[in-house]
Amino acid sequence: MPKPKKRGSNHQRGAGGQPRNVQPFSDEDASIETMSHCSGFSDPASFTEDGPEVDEEATQEDLEYKLKGFIDLTLDKSAKTRQAALESLKSAFSSKILYEFIMERRMTLTDSIERCIKKGKSDEQCAAAGLACLLCVQMGSGIESEEIFKTLGPVLKKIVCDGTASIQARQACATCLGICCFIVTDDITELYSTMECLENIFMKAYQRDRDTNGVSSTHNSVLHVSALLAWTLLLTICPMNEVKKKIEMHLHKLPSLLSCDDLNMRIAAGETLALLFELARETDADFFYEDMDLLTEKLRALATDGNKHRAKVDKRKQRSVFRDVLRAVEERDFPTEMVKFGPERMYIDCWVKKQTYETFKEILGSGMQYHLQSNDFLRNVFELGPPVMLDAATLKTMKISRFERHLYNSAAFKARTKARSKCRDKRADVGEFF
Fold first, then answer.
1. Which of 205, 223, 247 is at the close of a domain?
2. Which of 14, 41, 183, 325 sees the fewest Cβ atoms within 10 Å?
3. Domain for residue 195, yes or no?
């Protein structure tokens, strides 16, 4: 009797002979392709001394073959297969620049995303909205991106305003709507329309807090937070006369959200307040807020919150954020942060820049540093200038040998051990007095 064939011996194929089960995009693919695409931008520490030569052309062809397979699978009958394909494309788009590849297939990708958002369930809609963000980040601000937004914008707005859609899908679409509008919109009318759509969502949090004396929160908080943050991002690119109108409309209402039970809502409201004060003082150096004493009292209470019914991690995060917010509102101060990427450094020295950086970091994840090095759009947003091109000789001089790295790490470890030993000795001496 002949032995039955093993099920795993052949790949299952769908209509047209297209492989149904494609291996997901991996971190190995990302690292190899990142080096091959942008060796001039890469961090010198990422280069090994005696690494094997990589056939860049073959690697590129293999990558494009995989991506084409994922794009085809976004039209598969199986929702699980479509979602997996969307997630794999998201991973690829966040970890490298694929402008030319996407340019040739932008309409196909746009149609697939539109179909998944319209007809998919919650998880698929979230994945499609995330991919739409990355698609616009890849394309940057231009005519092609405007065409993408003209197609997807109405669909996103419809989901955001649809009370029957899942909260997660509405949340993802609200974030996507704000980011895509920020990237592509030159039309001031479209900008105001998008902001109004987002306003209609998060302003419901004002009413909820007023009806319940500011102590209740619902499952809609995640949607309100996303809409508020997306709206705040768009406010940073508004003309000054519109900024003044929005400040007058929201500055006296936002403090009510500081009493919300949801930590993320309190933090989003606090950071938005800090940004509004920053913008208000830019437009008017003598800006005066009537309820400053009451507001600073609220902010100080949140910056020193010690309620036992809250988790320690939440309290630590809240206190850290609201210390900075309080300094911004009360002292007009911002704690400067430094971001390192490759041989470059970027300083975040204001709330507008911080809000923008945090938004794109959220969607790009670990690929944020790579995009800061090589994505023209992001470099323009953060005023970094053209990408820094380093030749092989410069990279070689910047590279640290393994032996030198070993010596440095050993010295740092010894110094750390000595410092900690002294602290332990001090604690031991204090203990002897009791």
1. 205
2. 14
3. yes
pLDDT of residue 244: 94
Which CATH number fits the domain that encloses residue 77?
A: 1.25.10.10
The answer to whether residues 125 and 61 touch, using CB atoms and an 8 Å cutoff, is: no
Structure tokens at 354: 């911080």
Task: State the sign of the Cα–Cα–Cα–Cα dihedral 400, 405, 408, 412.
Answer: positive
Comparing CA positions, the residue from 76, 91, 81, 111 lying closest to residue 29 is: 91
* 290, 311, 333 - which closes a domain: 333
Q: Is residue 274 part of a domain?
A: yes
From CA 256, how far away is CA 312, in angstroms rounded? Answer: 24
Residues 276 and 180 in one domain: no
Summarised one tens digit per residue, pLDDT across range 191-201 is: 999 999 999 99
- Among residues 301, 307, 308, the alpha carbon closest in space to that of 322 is found at 301
Question: Ramachandran region of residue 383, left (φ > 0), alpha (ψ -120 to 50) or beta?
Answer: left
b (16+ CB within 10 A) / e for 6-43: eeeeeeeebeeeeebebeebeeebbebbbbbbbbbbbb
Which residue intervals of 289-367 are DSSP H helices?
Answer: 292-303, 312-331, 351-364
pTM of the predicted model, to two decimals? 0.78
Provide the CB-side half-sphere exposure for 122 (13 A, CA).
7
Same domain, 244 and 144: no
* Contacts with 366 (C-beta within 8 Å, 6 or more apart), sequence order: 94, 95
Length of the chain: 434
The pLDDT of residue 181 is 96
Asked whether the beta carbons of 180 and 132 are under 8 A apart, the reply is yes
Owning domain of residue 282: 239-333
The answer to whether 359 touches 229, Cβ cutoff 8 Å, is yes
Long-range (24+ apart) CB contacts under 8 A made by 302-310 are 302/258, 302/266, 302/270, 310/263
Do 149 and 78 sit in the same domain of this protein? yes
The ranges of the chain with pLDDT < 70 are 1-55, 208-218, 390-401, 404-405, 422-434
Pairing state between β 344-348 and 337-341: antiparallel
Q: Can you give the pLDDT at residue 280?
A: 94
**194, 149 contact by CB (below 8 A):** no
Say how many domains are in the chain.
Answer: 2
Taking the C-alpha atoms of residue 346 and residue 338, their distance in angstroms, rounded to an integer, is 6
d(CA 59, CA 33): 7
